[in-house]
Structure prediction request, 297 residues.
Amino acid sequence: MLEIIVPATTANIGPGFDTLGLALNLYNKFYITEIENGLEITGCDDDYKNENNLIYTSMQYFYNKVKPDKIPTGVKIDICTNIPLGRGLGSSATCIIAGVIAANILSDSNLSKKEILNIATEIEGHPDNIAPALFGNMIVSLYENNEVYYNVLDIPDELIFCAIIPDFELSTSLARSVLPSEIPHKDGVYNISRVSLLISSLINKNFDLIKIACHDKLHQIYRSPLIENYNDIVSKLYNLESIGVFLSGSGPTIMSIVLNDNYTFSDSIKSFLLTLNNTWEIKILKCDKQGTKVNII
Ligand SMILES: Nc1ncnc2c1ncn2[C@@H]1O[C@H](COP(=O)(O)OP(=O)(O)O)[C@@H](O)[C@H]1O
Ligand SMILES: N[C@@H](CCOP(=O)(O)O)C(=O)O
Prediction:
Protein backbone atom coordinates (compact mmCIF):
# COMPACT_ATOMS: atom_id res chain seq x y z
CA MET A 1 0.00 0.00 0.00
CA LEU A 2 1.22 3.52 -0.81
CA GLU A 3 1.04 6.36 1.69
CA ILE A 4 1.28 9.72 -0.10
CA ILE A 5 1.47 12.85 2.07
CA VAL A 6 0.91 16.14 0.23
CA PRO A 7 1.06 19.65 1.72
CA ALA A 8 -1.49 22.42 1.37
CA THR A 9 -0.44 25.38 -0.75
CA THR A 10 -1.25 29.06 -0.94
CA ALA A 11 -1.10 30.22 -4.55
CA ASN A 12 -0.73 33.63 -6.21
CA ILE A 13 0.64 35.32 -3.04
CA GLY A 14 -1.09 38.54 -4.14
CA PRO A 15 0.18 39.69 -7.56
CA GLY A 16 1.65 36.37 -8.81
CA PHE A 17 -1.52 35.01 -10.44
CA ASP A 18 -0.94 31.43 -11.72
CA THR A 19 2.80 31.94 -11.05
CA LEU A 20 3.69 32.04 -7.33
CA GLY A 21 2.83 29.52 -4.63
CA LEU A 22 4.18 28.14 -1.40
CA ALA A 23 3.70 24.94 0.57
CA LEU A 24 2.29 24.96 4.11
CA ASN A 25 2.67 22.53 7.02
CA LEU A 26 -0.88 21.23 6.74
CA TYR A 27 -1.26 17.86 4.98
CA ASN A 28 -3.65 15.50 3.21
CA LYS A 29 -2.71 11.81 3.39
CA PHE A 30 -3.73 9.29 0.76
CA TYR A 31 -3.54 5.49 1.08
CA ILE A 32 -3.73 3.84 -2.33
CA THR A 33 -3.48 0.21 -3.35
CA GLU A 34 -4.51 -2.09 -6.19
CA ILE A 35 -7.36 -4.51 -5.47
CA GLU A 36 -8.74 -7.34 -7.57
CA ASN A 37 -11.79 -5.51 -8.96
CA GLY A 38 -13.74 -2.25 -8.82
CA LEU A 39 -13.23 1.06 -7.01
CA GLU A 40 -13.38 1.52 -3.22
CA ILE A 41 -13.07 5.05 -1.81
CA THR A 42 -13.21 5.96 1.89
CA GLY A 43 -12.52 9.08 3.95
CA CYS A 44 -14.45 11.66 1.90
CA ASP A 45 -18.00 12.88 1.29
CA ASP A 46 -20.30 10.46 -0.55
CA ASP A 47 -20.31 12.91 -3.49
CA TYR A 48 -16.66 11.97 -4.15
CA LYS A 49 -16.97 8.18 -3.70
CA ASN A 50 -17.30 7.42 -7.40
CA GLU A 51 -15.39 7.31 -10.69
CA ASN A 52 -15.35 11.14 -10.87
CA ASN A 53 -13.13 11.31 -7.78
CA LEU A 54 -10.20 13.60 -8.63
CA ILE A 55 -7.58 11.15 -7.28
CA TYR A 56 -9.04 8.36 -9.38
CA THR A 57 -9.47 10.50 -12.54
CA SER A 58 -5.85 11.68 -12.14
CA MET A 59 -4.71 8.03 -11.95
CA GLN A 60 -6.74 7.25 -15.09
CA TYR A 61 -5.27 10.27 -16.86
CA PHE A 62 -1.77 8.99 -16.10
CA TYR A 63 -2.50 5.42 -17.25
CA ASN A 64 -4.12 6.58 -20.50
CA LYS A 65 -1.19 8.87 -21.28
CA VAL A 66 1.76 6.78 -20.08
CA LYS A 67 0.81 3.11 -19.58
CA PRO A 68 -2.52 2.27 -21.28
CA ASP A 69 -1.63 -1.44 -21.11
CA LYS A 70 -1.27 -1.34 -17.30
CA ILE A 71 -4.68 0.03 -16.22
CA PRO A 72 -5.47 -1.82 -12.97
CA THR A 73 -8.71 -3.80 -12.66
CA GLY A 74 -9.32 -2.46 -9.15
CA VAL A 75 -8.19 0.41 -6.91
CA LYS A 76 -8.73 1.24 -3.23
CA ILE A 77 -8.27 4.85 -2.09
CA ASP A 78 -8.47 5.99 1.53
CA ILE A 79 -8.25 9.74 2.14
CA CYS A 80 -7.27 11.38 5.42
CA THR A 81 -8.19 15.02 4.95
CA ASN A 82 -6.77 17.90 6.96
CA ILE A 83 -6.95 20.55 4.24
CA PRO A 84 -10.41 22.10 3.97
CA LEU A 85 -11.80 21.69 0.48
CA GLY A 86 -12.72 24.62 -1.79
CA ARG A 87 -11.02 27.17 0.49
CA GLY A 88 -8.04 28.26 -1.66
CA LEU A 89 -5.54 25.99 0.09
CA GLY A 90 -4.79 23.68 -2.83
CA SER A 91 -6.85 20.61 -1.86
CA SER A 92 -7.40 19.75 -5.54
CA ALA A 93 -3.63 19.84 -6.20
CA THR A 94 -3.10 17.31 -3.36
CA CYS A 95 -5.60 14.91 -4.99
CA ILE A 96 -4.03 15.26 -8.45
CA ILE A 97 -0.48 14.72 -7.14
CA ALA A 98 -1.57 11.66 -5.13
CA GLY A 99 -3.27 10.14 -8.19
CA VAL A 100 -0.38 10.78 -10.57
CA ILE A 101 2.29 9.55 -8.12
CA ALA A 102 0.28 6.43 -7.25
CA ALA A 103 -0.20 5.53 -10.92
CA ASN A 104 3.49 6.17 -11.63
CA ILE A 105 4.54 3.73 -8.90
CA LEU A 106 1.82 1.11 -9.40
CA SER A 107 2.56 0.93 -13.16
CA ASP A 108 6.36 0.77 -12.62
CA SER A 109 6.72 3.75 -14.94
CA ASN A 110 9.57 5.44 -13.05
CA LEU A 111 8.77 8.91 -14.36
CA SER A 112 10.91 11.64 -12.77
CA LYS A 113 9.52 14.30 -10.41
CA LYS A 114 9.80 16.82 -13.26
CA GLU A 115 7.67 14.61 -15.53
CA ILE A 116 5.16 14.14 -12.71
CA LEU A 117 5.05 17.94 -12.32
CA ASN A 118 4.24 18.33 -16.04
CA ILE A 119 1.46 15.74 -16.01
CA ALA A 120 -0.10 17.01 -12.77
CA THR A 121 -0.03 20.58 -14.13
CA GLU A 122 -1.65 19.40 -17.37
CA ILE A 123 -4.54 18.12 -15.24
CA GLU A 124 -4.80 21.18 -12.93
CA GLY A 125 -4.25 23.73 -15.74
CA HIS A 126 -1.84 25.98 -13.78
CA PRO A 127 1.38 25.12 -11.90
CA ASP A 128 1.24 27.45 -8.88
CA ASN A 129 -0.26 24.91 -6.42
CA ILE A 130 1.13 21.73 -8.00
CA ALA A 131 4.81 22.80 -8.02
CA PRO A 132 5.15 23.80 -4.33
CA ALA A 133 2.95 20.87 -3.21
CA LEU A 134 5.39 18.55 -4.99
CA PHE A 135 8.71 20.22 -4.10
CA GLY A 136 7.92 22.22 -0.92
CA ASN A 137 9.02 25.81 -0.18
CA MET A 138 8.00 28.69 -2.46
CA ILE A 139 8.05 28.12 -6.22
CA VAL A 140 8.01 30.60 -9.07
CA SER A 141 6.71 28.79 -12.14
CA LEU A 142 5.29 29.12 -15.62
CA TYR A 143 3.62 26.59 -17.89
CA GLU A 144 4.25 26.60 -21.64
CA ASN A 145 3.85 23.90 -24.32
CA ASN A 146 3.06 21.22 -21.72
CA GLU A 147 6.17 21.97 -19.71
CA VAL A 148 6.66 23.69 -16.35
CA TYR A 149 9.68 25.99 -15.91
CA TYR A 150 10.36 26.81 -12.27
CA ASN A 151 12.67 28.09 -9.54
CA VAL A 152 12.60 27.20 -5.85
CA LEU A 153 12.83 30.13 -3.44
CA ASP A 154 13.73 29.49 0.18
CA ILE A 155 11.17 31.13 2.47
CA PRO A 156 12.78 32.74 5.56
CA ASP A 157 11.98 30.71 8.70
CA GLU A 158 10.76 33.74 10.63
CA LEU A 159 7.69 34.13 8.39
CA ILE A 160 4.45 32.75 9.83
CA PHE A 161 1.33 32.31 7.69
CA CYS A 162 -2.00 32.87 9.45
CA ALA A 163 -4.78 31.39 7.34
CA ILE A 164 -8.18 32.95 8.07
CA ILE A 165 -10.57 30.30 6.76
CA PRO A 166 -14.33 30.81 6.47
CA ASP A 167 -17.03 28.17 6.86
CA PHE A 168 -18.08 28.50 3.18
CA GLU A 169 -16.50 27.14 0.00
CA LEU A 170 -15.60 29.01 -3.18
CA SER A 171 -14.75 26.71 -6.08
CA THR A 172 -11.73 27.64 -8.17
CA SER A 173 -13.78 27.35 -11.36
CA LEU A 174 -16.33 29.89 -10.09
CA ALA A 175 -13.56 32.22 -8.86
CA ARG A 176 -11.88 32.01 -12.29
CA SER A 177 -15.13 32.71 -14.13
CA VAL A 178 -15.39 36.25 -12.68
CA LEU A 179 -11.99 37.31 -14.06
CA PRO A 180 -11.90 39.58 -17.13
CA SER A 181 -10.45 38.23 -20.38
CA GLU A 182 -8.48 41.45 -20.95
CA ILE A 183 -6.81 43.98 -18.64
CA PRO A 184 -5.45 47.50 -19.19
CA HIS A 185 -1.71 47.70 -19.96
CA LYS A 186 -1.14 49.74 -16.77
CA ASP A 187 -2.58 46.91 -14.66
CA GLY A 188 -0.04 44.53 -16.23
CA VAL A 189 2.76 46.90 -15.23
CA TYR A 190 1.23 47.26 -11.75
CA ASN A 191 1.45 43.48 -11.22
CA ILE A 192 4.86 42.93 -12.82
CA SER A 193 6.39 45.55 -10.51
CA ARG A 194 4.82 44.01 -7.43
CA VAL A 195 5.78 40.41 -8.24
CA SER A 196 9.36 41.54 -8.80
CA LEU A 197 9.36 43.52 -5.56
CA LEU A 198 7.82 40.63 -3.62
CA ILE A 199 10.39 38.08 -4.78
CA SER A 200 13.35 40.41 -4.21
CA SER A 201 12.00 41.43 -0.76
CA LEU A 202 11.83 37.78 0.28
CA ILE A 203 15.35 37.10 -0.99
CA ASN A 204 16.79 40.23 0.70
CA LYS A 205 14.60 39.78 3.82
CA ASN A 206 13.37 43.33 3.25
CA PHE A 207 10.05 42.58 4.95
CA ASP A 208 8.84 46.22 5.09
CA LEU A 209 8.18 46.07 1.33
CA ILE A 210 5.98 42.97 1.40
CA LYS A 211 2.80 44.93 2.19
CA ILE A 212 2.84 47.05 -0.98
CA ALA A 213 4.16 44.08 -2.99
CA CYS A 214 1.07 41.97 -2.10
CA HIS A 215 -1.26 44.37 -3.95
CA ASP A 216 -2.69 43.12 -7.23
CA LYS A 217 -4.99 44.09 -10.07
CA LEU A 218 -5.37 40.73 -11.85
CA HIS A 219 -7.67 38.78 -9.55
CA GLN A 220 -8.15 39.97 -5.96
CA ILE A 221 -10.30 43.00 -6.90
CA TYR A 222 -12.61 40.80 -9.00
CA ARG A 223 -12.88 37.99 -6.46
CA SER A 224 -13.15 39.90 -3.20
CA PRO A 225 -16.85 40.82 -3.72
CA LEU A 226 -17.57 37.05 -3.53
CA ILE A 227 -16.25 37.03 0.05
CA GLU A 228 -18.33 38.81 2.67
CA ASN A 229 -16.24 41.15 4.89
CA TYR A 230 -13.07 40.63 2.78
CA ASN A 231 -12.03 44.31 2.97
CA ASP A 232 -12.87 44.62 6.70
CA ILE A 233 -10.72 41.57 7.50
CA VAL A 234 -7.80 42.79 5.36
CA SER A 235 -7.87 46.23 7.08
CA LYS A 236 -8.06 44.62 10.52
CA LEU A 237 -5.11 42.33 9.74
CA TYR A 238 -2.98 45.28 8.66
CA ASN A 239 -3.93 47.17 11.85
CA LEU A 240 -2.67 44.15 13.77
CA GLU A 241 0.79 44.36 12.25
CA SER A 242 0.54 41.86 9.40
CA ILE A 243 3.46 42.41 7.07
CA GLY A 244 1.45 41.18 4.08
CA VAL A 245 -2.13 40.11 3.39
CA PHE A 246 -3.51 38.38 0.30
CA LEU A 247 -6.28 36.13 -0.97
CA SER A 248 -5.05 32.54 -0.68
CA GLY A 249 -5.29 30.95 -4.14
CA SER A 250 -8.73 31.69 -5.55
CA GLY A 251 -10.11 32.22 -2.02
CA PRO A 252 -12.09 32.44 0.16
CA THR A 253 -9.26 32.00 2.71
CA ILE A 254 -7.42 35.22 3.53
CA MET A 255 -3.71 34.80 4.31
CA SER A 256 -1.78 37.09 6.63
CA ILE A 257 2.01 37.00 6.97
CA VAL A 258 3.30 37.87 10.43
CA LEU A 259 6.78 37.88 11.90
CA ASN A 260 5.78 36.31 15.16
CA ASP A 261 2.47 34.98 16.25
CA ASN A 262 2.15 36.88 19.50
CA TYR A 263 -0.82 36.48 21.80
CA THR A 264 -2.18 39.97 21.06
CA PHE A 265 -2.39 39.25 17.32
CA SER A 266 -4.25 35.93 17.66
CA ASP A 267 -6.54 37.16 20.40
CA SER A 268 -7.46 40.42 18.66
CA ILE A 269 -8.17 38.83 15.29
CA LYS A 270 -10.20 36.06 16.95
CA SER A 271 -12.46 38.52 18.77
CA PHE A 272 -12.87 40.61 15.62
CA LEU A 273 -13.87 37.57 13.53
CA LEU A 274 -16.51 36.66 16.12
CA THR A 275 -18.35 39.90 15.30
CA LEU A 276 -18.89 38.83 11.65
CA ASN A 277 -21.79 36.91 10.05
CA ASN A 278 -19.76 33.88 8.95
CA THR A 279 -17.63 31.64 11.13
CA TRP A 280 -13.91 32.09 10.44
CA GLU A 281 -11.23 29.71 11.73
CA ILE A 282 -7.56 30.69 12.19
CA LYS A 283 -4.74 28.27 11.37
CA ILE A 284 -1.21 29.36 12.25
CA LEU A 285 1.11 27.74 9.69
CA LYS A 286 4.73 27.66 8.59
CA CYS A 287 6.19 27.04 5.14
CA ASP A 288 6.71 23.32 4.38
CA LYS A 289 10.19 22.78 2.96
CA GLN A 290 9.94 19.13 1.88
CA GLY A 291 6.90 18.80 -0.38
CA THR A 292 5.24 15.47 -1.13
CA LYS A 293 6.42 12.38 0.75
CA VAL A 294 5.78 8.79 -0.33
CA ASN A 295 6.02 5.70 1.88
CA ILE A 296 5.44 2.11 0.91
CA ILE A 297 3.71 0.46 3.88
N1 LIG B 1 -10.56 15.21 0.30
C1 LIG B 1 -11.06 15.23 -0.93
N2 LIG B 1 -11.78 14.18 -1.37
C2 LIG B 1 -12.28 14.19 -2.62
N3 LIG B 1 -12.14 15.19 -3.49
C3 LIG B 1 -11.44 16.26 -3.10
C4 LIG B 1 -10.88 16.33 -1.80
N4 LIG B 1 -10.23 17.52 -1.69
C5 LIG B 1 -10.41 18.14 -2.87
N5 LIG B 1 -11.14 17.42 -3.71
C6 LIG B 1 -11.49 17.79 -5.11
O1 LIG B 1 -11.02 19.12 -5.34
C7 LIG B 1 -12.12 20.01 -5.62
C8 LIG B 1 -11.88 21.35 -4.93
O2 LIG B 1 -10.92 22.01 -5.67
P1 LIG B 1 -10.93 23.60 -5.84
O3 LIG B 1 -12.29 24.11 -6.15
O4 LIG B 1 -9.83 23.88 -6.80
O5 LIG B 1 -10.57 24.12 -4.39
P2 LIG B 1 -9.20 24.07 -3.58
O6 LIG B 1 -8.87 25.51 -3.39
O7 LIG B 1 -9.52 23.39 -2.29
O8 LIG B 1 -8.18 23.35 -4.42
C9 LIG B 1 -13.35 19.28 -5.06
O9 LIG B 1 -14.51 19.67 -5.76
C10 LIG B 1 -12.98 17.83 -5.33
O10 LIG B 1 -13.20 17.49 -6.67
N1 LIG C 1 -3.87 30.56 -9.64
C1 LIG C 1 -5.06 29.84 -9.27
C2 LIG C 1 -4.86 29.24 -7.90
C3 LIG C 1 -6.04 28.44 -7.40
O1 LIG C 1 -5.72 27.93 -6.12
P1 LIG C 1 -6.82 27.17 -5.24
O2 LIG C 1 -6.09 26.75 -4.00
O3 LIG C 1 -7.92 28.14 -4.98
O4 LIG C 1 -7.29 25.99 -6.06
C4 LIG C 1 -6.23 30.83 -9.26
O5 LIG C 1 -6.07 31.89 -8.67
O6 LIG C 1 -7.27 30.52 -9.85
Summary: The longest helix spans residues 185-204.
